[in-house]
Every structure is written in structure tokens, then in C-alpha cells.
């Protein structure tokens, strides 16, 4: 589109590219077996060269999922407005960044003008108070928020996450929460920057250095909402009441605690959508989610493929074996995460347990690469969407959960309560 209009990149030095969605994770060898994916990769390589954009392609030690490498390189900083042609750009809000997922036409406009045209958002403050029980993770927090407020509850809002639970989270946990803001209908989701944010950024490649970092921290602190800030809405949740959470249907809001039974259509607001979910999934209303059989286990995606995610899953998998007949994949979110995990011996923990240890990429989160479900397979997945066909098969069924819960399901061939392993 830019070539057709004779447009140039307004700020190439503020524009970065990587390869993630279409990348095979069993091998990064070229050419790709998928001709369309190879053509897309070749087009990307030509475009970044023609327009002078820094590119972290295959073979680069900075390659990985865009929402993993941006923070780890220090490109994502508080107070920035950031845009990317991917729905889960809200991940970067963990740094106090306004991060927007945009469509292809908007990508053209941002590249050529470095601006976005949009309406002012309302702000909803979501406080998660108290403490999380043992075995409950950031993924359970965001799934509970979406289940509570609905997949359309955030329409027209920015979500500001806070409260004691968010205050205690590390940056990778905050990224998991912000990542799925769009699944709740919010255009962006963010956490106010604090010392945890600054400590994470210090020393990273694109973060300020020396006195410039100190000036940056002073500016970043000013980005946080004032104590007396007024919000358009405030929601309070009790963190101690959250339990390991599993989706049962065809959107992320259709979720239950692991010890709950599946809801009956008449108990929910839109019985027709619920009936469609049961029709696709094949479950029985009122049945327990605990014990649901799985065929595939996937640990990865921009939601849960960072080092701490892999550590949590490895703690469950260590010294145990994947259940017979389960295909289990662990896909690091970046080359750096892969190296860090291998240095810690996590790759050996997983492979000795029967998991496949893959190259960095988006993998089975979506059907744009060879990692896909087959037929009516059921997948325990640490990804972010359980839409029909999302993982490559029109009949495939996706159960979203935390990486630790995925690991436990892989070992047992069914949904279990990960707290049994603590």
C-alpha cells in the first residue's frame, strides 16, 4: 500500500520488525516447506531492506515473538505510545505503555505518519486485592477478569490493572495479564510503572544509560496515575478467591475454576452462544472440567512463553513423564529465552519428560505455521484464544490455562488441579 501511494517510513529508527507467526518451530531452515510462508518471509525481508527497517530475522539472536522481544530489548518503555499489527500488542502495557494492536491499513498510516487516529477511551481501574493462593498464576488472574467482565465488557475502555496482587507481580506476570486485555474487549491494558518496572529495564539494550536512565525514571514515575485519579469505572476482585482456571468453550470468557462444574446455558446471559460452544466442544453442561481428556499440550505464545513461564511448567514436569498418546510442545518465545532456559537446564527437564523442545516462534497459538491440531483433538494450551479453528483444525478444541496447568495436564492426559503438585 505504501509503494502504491509513494509513501516512505516517517521514522525508520523507531520501527522494528521480527519473524514470528509464520516461522516453523521444528526447524528454522530455509526455504520453508510451506510455499506461502516462504513467500511471506521473502517479502518481509525485501520490505525491511527497501525501507530501512531494523529486522530481527531467522539467525538473529534477537528473533522471537514481537511481544517477547520488545520488552526484553528495552524497546518498550513507560509513557510510550506503541503500535503493532497484532491483536496482543496490549502486552506492552505492563510497562505503563499505551500499546495498540492495529489493522493493516492502520499499519500503513503509522509507518507513514507515526500517528494514530482514534477516539478518547474511558478508563476502568481493576484492582486485584489480597494474595493469590499457591498454584494460582497470572494467567488465572486474567482469565478470571475476562470471565467476570465478559469478552465485550471492555469495549470503549482502557483497563488499568492494580491492587496488591499486581503490585507483587514481576514484569513477566504483568505482561501475561496485559496481553489478554483485548480478549476482554479493552483496546489497551496497562499497569502503572514502579520500581519493578525500572529494575527490569535497567541495562537493556535500548533503555537509557547512566544519567539518562535516572532522568528516564523520573519521567516514568510521572506517568503513573495520581492517588486521587478519577476513573470511569472501578472493579475490585479478591485475589484469594481465584483458583486455577480453565476455559471450556469457544471464547476466553467461557471459563471455570478447575474444581467447578461446567455451567448450564440458562445460567448465563447469552444461552445461544453457550449452546454453540457446547455443540462444538461436545461437553455436557453440569459436568466437571476436572478429568477432561486432552490429546495435545502446548506451552508457548506471546502470553506465556517467557523464562518464568517455562520455569513454572518445568517444576511440574521434572522427574515425570508425559502421558502416553499426548503430543506435548514447549516453544520459547524468543532466541534469548531459549538460551536462558537451556543454560538453566530446562530443555533437559522437558525432553526427559517427553516434551518436544522447539525453536522460537508463535507455534500452535494460531494456524499460520506447521504446528496445528488435527481433527477433533483437544489441546491444553497456554495461549490466548480458543476460537473455533484457531489452532488449525475446524474441529479442534482448545482449553486455555496457565503453563503449570498445561504441564500437569500433559503428564496426566487430562485436566488436573496443579495444586496437587505443590
TrEMBL record:
Transmembrane segments: none annotated. Pathway: Amino-acid biosynthesis; L-leucine biosynthesis; L-leucine from 3-methyl-2-oxobutanoate: step 2/4. Gene3D superfamilies: Aconitase, domain 3. Its EC number is 4.2.1.33. Residues 2-413 form the Aconitase/3-isopropylmalate dehydratase large subunit alpha/beta/alpha domain. It catalyses: (2R,3S)-3-isopropylmalate = (2S)-2-isopropylmalate. Signal peptide: none annotated. Keywords: 4Fe-4S, Amino-acid biosynthesis, Branched-chain amino acid biosynthesis, Iron, Iron-sulfur, Leucine biosynthesis, Lyase, Metal-binding. It is an enzyme of class 4 (lyase). The keyword Transit peptide does not apply. One of its GO terms (molecular function) is 3-isopropylmalate dehydratase activity. GO terms for biological process: L-leucine biosynthetic process. It comes from the Eukaryota. The keyword Oxidoreductase does not apply. Its cofactor is [4Fe-4S] cluster. Catalyzes the isomerization between 2-isopropylmalate and 3-isopropylmalate, via the formation of 2-isopropylmaleate. NCBIfam families: PRK05478.1, PRK12466.1. PANTHER family: 3-ISOPROPYLMALATE DEHYDRATASE, HOMOACONITASE, MITOCHONDRIAL-RELATED. This is 3-isopropylmalate dehydratase. It comes from Geodia barretti. The lineage of its organism: Eukaryota, Metazoa, Porifera, Demospongiae, Heteroscleromorpha.
Amino acid at each position: 500500500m505504501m509503494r502504491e501511494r509513494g509513501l516512505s517510513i516517517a521514522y525508520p529508527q523507531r520501527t522494528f520488525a521480527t519473524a514470528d507467526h509464520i516461522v516453523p518451530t521444528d526447524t528454522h531452515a530455509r526455504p520453508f516447506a510451506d510455499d506461502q510462508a516462504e513467500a511471506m518471509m521473502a517479502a518481509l525481508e525485501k520490505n525491511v531492506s527497501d525501507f530501512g527497517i531494523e529486522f530481527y530475522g531467522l539467525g538473529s539472536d534477537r528473533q522471537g515473538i514481537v511481544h517477547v522481544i520488545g520488552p526484553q530489548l528495552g524497546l518498550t518503555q513507560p509513557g510510550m505510545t506503541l503500535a503493532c499489527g497484532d491483536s496482543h500488542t496490549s502486552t506492552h502495557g505492563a510497562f505503563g505503555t499505551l500499546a495498540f494492536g492495529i489493522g493493516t491499513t492502520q499499519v500503513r498510516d503509522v509507518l507513514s505518519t507515526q500517528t494514530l487516529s482514534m477516539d478518547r477511551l474511558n478508563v476502568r481501574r481493576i484492582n486485584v486485592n489480597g494474595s493469590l493462593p499457591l498454584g494460582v498464576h497470572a494467567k488465572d488472574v486474567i482469565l478470571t477478569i475476562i470471565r467476570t467482565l465478559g469478552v465485550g465488557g471492555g469495549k470503549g475502555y482502557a483497563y488499568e490493572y492494580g491492587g496488591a496482587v499486581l503490585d507483587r507481580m514481576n514484569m513477566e506476570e504483568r505482561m501475561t495479564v496485559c496481553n489478554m486485555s483485548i480478549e476482554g474487549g479493552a483496546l489497551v491494558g496497562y499497569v502503572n510503572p514502579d520500581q519493578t518496572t525500572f529494575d527490569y529495564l535497567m541495562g537493556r539494550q535500548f533503555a537509557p544509560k547512566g544519567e539518562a536512565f535516572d532522568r528516564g525514571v523520573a519521567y516514568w514515575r510521572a506517568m503513573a496515575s495520581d492517588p486521587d485519579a478519577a476513573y470511569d469505572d472501578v472493579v475490585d476482585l479478591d485475589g484469594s478467591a481465584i483458583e486455577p482456571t480453565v476455559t471450556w468453550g469457544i471464547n476466553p470468557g467461557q471459563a471455570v475454576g478447575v474444581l467447578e462444574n461446567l455451567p448450564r446455558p440458562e445460567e448465563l446471559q447469552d444461552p445461544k452462544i453457550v449452546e454453540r460452544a457446547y455443540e462444538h466442544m461436545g461437553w455436557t453442561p453440569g459436568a466437571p472440567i476436572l478429568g477432561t481428556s486432552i490429546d495435545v499440550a502446548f506451552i508457548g505464545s506471546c502470553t506465556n512463553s517467557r523464562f518464568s513461564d517455562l520455569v513454572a511448567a518445568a517444576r511440574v514436569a521434572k522427574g515425570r513423564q508425559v502421558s502416553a498418546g499426548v503430543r506435548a510442545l514447549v516453544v520459547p518465545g524468543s532466541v534469548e529465552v531459549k538460551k536462558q532456559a537451556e543454560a538453566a537446564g530446562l530443555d533437559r527437564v522437558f525432553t526427559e519428560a517427553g516434551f518436544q523442545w522447539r525453536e522460537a516462534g508463535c507455534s500452535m497459538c494460531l494456524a499460520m505455521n506447521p504446528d496445528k491440531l488435527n481433527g477433533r483433538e483437544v489441546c491444553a494450551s497456554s495461549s490466548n484464544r480458543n476460537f473455533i479453528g484457531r489452532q488449525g483444525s475446524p474441529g479442534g478444541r482448545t482449553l486455555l490455562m496457565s503453563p503449570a496447568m498445561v504441564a500437569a495436564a500433559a503428564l496426566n492426559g487430562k485436566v488436573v488441579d496443579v495444586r496437587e503438585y505443590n
